[in-house]
Amino acid sequence: MKPINPFVIAGLALTIAVSLSAEAQVSLPKTGLRADVQKKLEATTLILNAPSSWCTVSPVTPDGYLLTALHCVRDCLIKAGAAEEGAVPNFGLQDLLLVKNPARMNVVCADQSVPALGAKSVTVVATGRALSSFSAEFFESFSGLHQELQARGLSSRGNDFALLKIETKKSLACLPLQLSQPAAGSKIFGVGFPKPQQQTQSLTLQASPGLRYASASQSQFYQASPKSERAYVESLYNDSSVIYSNAVSQFGQSGGPIVNEGGELVGVISGYSILPTKNRGEIHELVGVAASSLATQLPPAVVQASTLCR
Hints:
Elements: E1 8-9, H1 35-44, E2 46-50, E3 53-59, E4 65-68, H2 74-80, E5 83-87, E6 94-99, E7 107-109, E8 122-127, E9 130-132, H3 136-141, H4 145-151, E10 162-165, E11 187-192, E12 206-211, H5 220-224, H6 230-237, E13 242-248, E14 257-260, E15 265-276, E16 282-290, H7 300-306
Antiparallel strand pairs: 1-15, 2-3, 3-4, 4-10, 5-6, 6-9, 7-8, 8-10, 11-12, 11-14, 13-16, 14-15, 15-16
């Protein structure tokens, strides 16, 4: 069957009436991780609250810097005038988020909070420069669109990260950044708070194990893609700033950590590739920003301070 948009956002589940002020369930079920790693993930994988929505966020320094997904703070940045929805050059298609000064920001999001840390607001200090979410089928309809976005550095899902800062008087439990790509075929875990199956259920922390794909051909999404779209899909999987895996990602987990078996943060969950099947429903293959691509995009002091999380 034909896959849908490979760039589905996994956060901001706006259609579910969950009481986010209620205490979330933060005890992970058995994951296959070491007990100390699992305990640390329970302490460092947190809810980023927004009006009628949520994402996942993790501290990466003891002094209050946290990582999440750019699309989780999209509305805040647009409201503050720090980003705008723009047209694709030469195509006039309004499906881009363009950040004006991604490396040097100081945007306070007063309506977003991290309840577990007592933070009633967050400040965005750095993000990726742009975000687009066109499907493979869409690119087939607009010849040259993908090449235009690639040439301008606007096509990569590797842009979907945001560095936040909160005020804290205590040293936070945090996850160290692993600035080298996980080896192809290595085991990784996507962690976060997915949308509950029922509206009355609390948000529950989950960790989904999977393997990092070595190439596009290993992906079920690629295998199910029409041959006319496979060149585009393959170009996505060749992007070293993005992690693709058969780990499961769902709504609400956006911004959550992707960790290796040692509990190091190797990526940030951006979304998933949807693969509809005849007898198993939808398969959600994880898509994330590789932490290795953030070494030159985050402030050097933050990268250095993350080593204190070990």
